[in-house]
């Protein structure tokens, strides 16, 4: 079984390698391309900090990607990651800094289309919106940062030799920051599809801290990224560093810092919680494209200087790669899933069963769905998501959001809380009070996952969502991630 798991994870490692080969250019491409930092130095620093970012801060963006499509079988996770990796690899061979985020999103949609599971429209809209916002925001940050930097340097009047030394040091520090942000944000692209079918369980290290199964996944993926940085990233570094637009050392530093800031904004759970607690608008935690961020920053500087020096032919090639990447990954994934399931007899998705019973109708009525709308669906059990969705379409006029709510409420999961599943819940994943409340439910079974959530909310205040306000948004999102993790563990002994 362990061998099978490792075989399936190889596609995630391949995708991690491809990301490292392609996206390291976004961190150190400008520095290497301007000859300010040697490639070997850049590769070492990038590898170290991308691993730290993935393990320490990688969970936030992965949660949003998981909502887009919760791939529930290792075979499906393998093929989604493999399809994205093949797509990125082909673009890398061409020397184009493509979007790994777009590749994995396209692959997940391909899995959704093949399995019949719905694509979460709200999550997809949020992710696609960031594909537009990311380069624009990076360009804006680059322009502001460049003006501030030039003003400071103009007043400082450093000697040319000292300025050169400071520029090298600044590029290295910015690269380390960028690598951390890359790991934190883009590890979701590499291992996010494996989270729902995660084969690892939490364990404690010396009684000091818990190392969750998700963190183990992210560590493996980050190591693969590091290998990609060392072995195959130099060609794309040179494209970003000089092919799009010639950059001075100062401009190169501004591009890297702008890219790093944007990636960090879309990956920081702490920043989201701070903004939410302060009652301010929050930034969605999604795996944005580091390629789009760095290209947006470069173009922002180019436009600031009147558009002179921008190689528009290279820009068009990069933009065309962004458009075709998700489409190619989607098609490759869909076709490959067919062969993996029908030729190699592998499970690529685990179908779900549904029932619209009185408790489900009552649950949805609390959310505003009229019970009479759901009555045509009641009285039978549906043994596949495709069958259930066809019946929903034939007998109701539910919106996509209402359909998603119905699917989540009606899914039969048969959760069992017993010693074997409780043993997999570590104190580092939940608080001691939450764990005690969970243990009080030992021996209980629940047909739907929301029933466990309700029971936990009754058992302890720490399992209850707070009122839906901006100040509570960060807390409620963190609680939702914890509940999803617990539900996966409680179900794991059934599959």
What does this structure look like?
By secondary structure, this protein is mainly alpha-helical. It folds into 3 domains: 2-342, no CATH class; 353-412; 415-492, no CATH class. Helices cover 70% and strands 3% of the residues. The chain contains 21 helices and 7 strands. It has a 3-stranded antiparallel beta sheet with strand order 4-3-5. Strands 1-2 form a two-stranded antiparallel ribbon. Strand 1 (203-205) and strand 2 form a beta hairpin. Helix 1 runs parallel beside helix 4 (74-93), helix 2 packs across helix 7 and helix 4 (74-93) packs antiparallel against helix 5 (100-115). The longest helix is centred in the N-terminal third of the chain and has 36 residues, at 121-156. The radius of gyration is 24 Å and the shape is globular. The two termini are 13 Å apart. The model has no long low-confidence stretch (mean pLDDT 84).
